[in-house]
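User: I'll paste a sequence; please echo it back and then give the predicted structure.

Assistant: Echoing your sequence first, then the prediction.
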Amino acid sequence: MHHATPLISTIVGGIVLAFILGAIASRLRLPPLIGYLCAGIVVGPHTPGYTADQALAPELAELGVILLMFGVGLHFSIKDLMAVKRIAIPGAVVQIGIATLMGMLVAWGFGWSWGQGLVYGLALSVASTVVLLKALQERELVESPQGRIAVGWLIVEDLAMVLALVLLPAMAGLLAGAGEASGEAAPATGGVVFAIFATLGKVAAFVAVMLVIGRRFIPWMLERIVWTGNREMFRLGVLATALGVAYGAYALFGVSFALGAFFAGMVLAESEFSHRAAEESLPLRDAFAVLFFVSVGMLFDPMVLVNDPWGVLATVFIIVVGKSLAALGIVRAFGHSGQTGMTIAVSLAQIGEFSFILASLGVYLKILPERGQALILAGALLSIMLNPVLFHLLDLYTARRNRSADPQPA
């Protein structure tokens, strides 16, 4: 038997280290996500010792992206979004715009092109679903008014990032600034516009197929499987739906795996079996999500903290301070209380999975420099570590304000 097993060693090494470091992070009352990213750093090429296979890691990460986006689609609720649409939609759009502009301004200071700054700023503008929901659940705030606004805000951010992932490849030639350094001719405006409309046309065709055919066929198929009483087949059917639709979207319509998986989840979310599908697919989604975060950690070079401290500080400032102040100002402008504004501001003061996906795509398309990806990863690690501290300070402020508001005994 051939014992050269890079696939097995990469998966085993990643999961075992992620478990150990994730448990340590939980013990320190930090999100396990920090442990997963640190596991990737440990097995990455920038640290001594064992190095995981550099060719297989991106493939595993792609599977992680597919299942992460499928999970996002499963939990997407138009009803929840419509309940807070008056603030969530304009608030998220304005906050994304402000954060992106701040990122572009910092990128201009780095000497980057406007296209590089746009991708960098977009990556800093969207919060992590995993981190935000965990923080709200720990404080039983998911069903509170501020929790509903935060979740609705997050849904809008996720949809904006899905759109960005769709349009980025079509606009790659323009955003990469072809000709600035290489001497090649910049892509004609007409060609870029045609590419964008062609991409949107493919997306529209895929969405139409999903809404007309997939919306009926997928629930019908799962209903027939449920009738058999075979739990194993139901679990396999959910997985086949996620992976099959994602690959079909890419192979037949030329759209991303991520968008295909998102729509597979969204269509399934309307089915009466959505909760069971989410429950059955959760273990596998979690396992590949862990491998995704490990693969992201492998890209991070810890020396960026030493070699580029001002870049790291600027990135963290935009995420933790800039985004938070923008969100607080927007919420207050819509007439909500300071408590609601601060809860949403703290909830959004971090970045995560969509930022990683966008940064990786930007580097792959040769739009974002590798320095930008390193800064985004550093900003994510530091902001996720700071987020529990910010929530703890908010809890102390809330408790103190409630005590001062209580009537003093005579």
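Residues 178-185 have pLDDT under 50 and may be disordered. Residues 189-228 form the longest helix (40 residues).
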